[in-house]
Write a structure and sequence with these properties.
The structure is a single chain. The protein has helices at residues 2-24, 94-97, 154-157, 177-187, 205-210; strands spanning 30-36, 39-43, 49-52, 64-69, 85-93, 98-99, 102-103, 105-107, 111-117, 130-136, 141-144, 164-168, 191-195, 224-227. By secondary structure, the chain is of the alpha/beta class. It has a single domain, classed as Metallo-beta-lactamase, Chain A, CATH 3.60.15.10. The chain is globular. The termini are far apart.
């Protein structure tokens, strides 16, 4: 009996050790890498990899589980940079997300992705462009405006208590700093992040500093943050 109890105890400790080792191999928190311009990479705490509007910077080495493309311009749609895709990887293009004027929602299990309004009268037809609202498994939410000016839907998003809102502000192809600030105040995210700041630049510190909102979070290109 004594030997049996010892054996059971040893086996239980072995299983606990395996479980602990497995837990340590996964991220404790979600992480987001700002690759620059309008490109983002999220690694969820489950280890799933999401690329948003691939084009700029580095960090395309991780095999993808989800790729989101907000519109067809080359600086948002360089899917070819992502050389590896995990089995079952989804690529969701704007043409999949906006059909006949209807914005689609996709439940991936590790994340829910909602297409939202995006576009302007300058260079981005609202009938073919989208932004992305991504809600991760524990409720952390990320809004990437894509290329846009102010939209009617932004007022609705204010009720969502968004954790991170990435707001375009280049002032040439999209809204300028003043309009971006106004949009940030409407959306009222916990963290408002300027991105897509200057055509041809990964990051523009001077324009980021002009994005003057109380809940501003500046993330330089190439920097990774923990989402919480």
């Amino acid at each position: 009996m004594k030997k049996t109890l010892c054996g059971i105890l040893s086996f239980t400790l072995f299983l606990l050790g395996c479980a602990s080792a497995g837990a340590e191999s996964l991220p404790v928190r979600h992480k987001l890498l700002y690759q620059g311009h309008g490109s983002l990479r999220i690694v969820t705490r489950e280890g799933k990899v999401i690329y948003i509007d691939p084009y700029a910077g580095n960090g395309y080495d991780l095999p993808a589980d989800l790729i989101l493309v907000s519109h067809g311009h080359r600086d948002h749609s360089a899917v070819n940079l992502i050389k590896k895709q995990n089995e079952g990887c989804r690529i969701i293009y704007n043409t999949d997300a906006l059909i006949g004027g209807e914005y689609k929602t996709f439940d991936l299990g590790f994340a829910t992705v909602e297409a939202v309004q995006a576009g302007n009268n300058k260079n981005h037809d609202i009938k073919v462009c989208v932004g992305w609202m991504i809600t991760l498994s524990d409720g952390v939410s990320i809004y990437a405006t894509g290329d846009t000016s102010a939209t009617d839907q932004m007022a609705e998003l204010a009720s969502r208590d968004i954790h991170y809102a990435f707001i375009v502000c280049d002032g040439r192809y999209n809204m300028d700093i003043d309009e971006a600030i106004a949009c940030a105040k409407i959306i009222n995210a916990q963290h408002s992040v300027p991105y897509h700041m200057s055509p041809g630049a990964l990051f523009d510190r001077s324009r980021a500093e002009l994005f003057d909102v109380p809940n501003r979070l500046i993330i330089p290109a190439g920097e990774e943050i923990v989402l919480e």
